[in-house]
Amino acid sequence: MNASRTTLRPPRHQFDPRVLPWWRAQWAIATAVPVVPLAVLGLLIAPARSWLLVPAAVLLVIGLATTIVMPVWWHRVHRWEVTDTAVYSLTGYFWRTWRIAPMSRIQTVDTTQGPLQRSFGLSTVVVTTASSAGAVTLEGLDQEQAAALAERLTELTDATPGDAT
Fold first, then answer.
1. Cβ-based neighbour number of residue 124 at 10 Å
2. Is residue 117 pLDDT above 50, yes or no?
3. HEC string for the chain
4. Which residue, 73, 74, 78, 63, is CA-closest to 25?
5. Over the range 14-28, which residues count as b (16 or more CB within 10 Å of their CB) and which as e?
6. CB contact at 8 A, 108 and 87
7. What's the whole-model pTM score?
8. How far is the first Cα of the chain from the last one, in angstroms, to the nearest whole number?
9. Is the separation of the CB atoms in 34 and 27 below 8 Å?
């Protein structure tokens, strides 16, 4: 008897290239949240100027470097794929996380968008399973691609025997 065997390999698809400016915008906002108040207070409060502006400058440099470098790095290593039997995702560079959700374990398929993500024409597909490890999240997909993927996953899950528990 020759049983078919699944080989673990990197998922085939990269996220949409528009994910780069979306991730950069997120980092820029995260950088601005502490830097702007520190800088404003440092400019307004003369006695505290140095101990407010120095941390603001350090955070700004770190934030700008991260905003430029991290999205490119993430885009190179984050992958996803959907087959007739499972949803796959691969994240991380140093600590790699492979998430595989068999169709028989999928409980819900959600498509979400925040306002920033929507402004870039992107969506996130969240595949919730019966696993305690949590959902498989595919963020940074084109809106139409995400909708089609959610529809396909729903059809595949419905056609797969099992009760997803």
1. 16
2. yes
3. CCCCCCCCCCCCECCCCCHHHHHHHHHHHHHHHHHHHHHHHHHHCHHHHHHHHHHHHHHHHHHHHHHHHHHHHHHHHCEEEECCCEEEEEECCCCCEEEEEEHHHEEEEEEECCHHHHHCCEEEEEEEECCCCCCEEEEEEEHHHHHHHHHHHHHHHHHCCCCCC
4. 63
5. ebbeebbebbbbbbe
6. no
7. 0.82
8. 30
9. no
How many CA atoms, within 13 angstroms, populate the side-chain half-sphere of residue 1?
A: 2
Question: Letter for the amino acid at 151?
Answer: E
Task: Write the single-letter amino acid at 162.
Answer: G
> How many Cβ atoms sit within 10 Å of the Cβ of residue 117?
21
Q: What is the pLDDT of residues 34-63, one digit of tens each?
A: 999 999 999 999 999 999 999 999 999 999
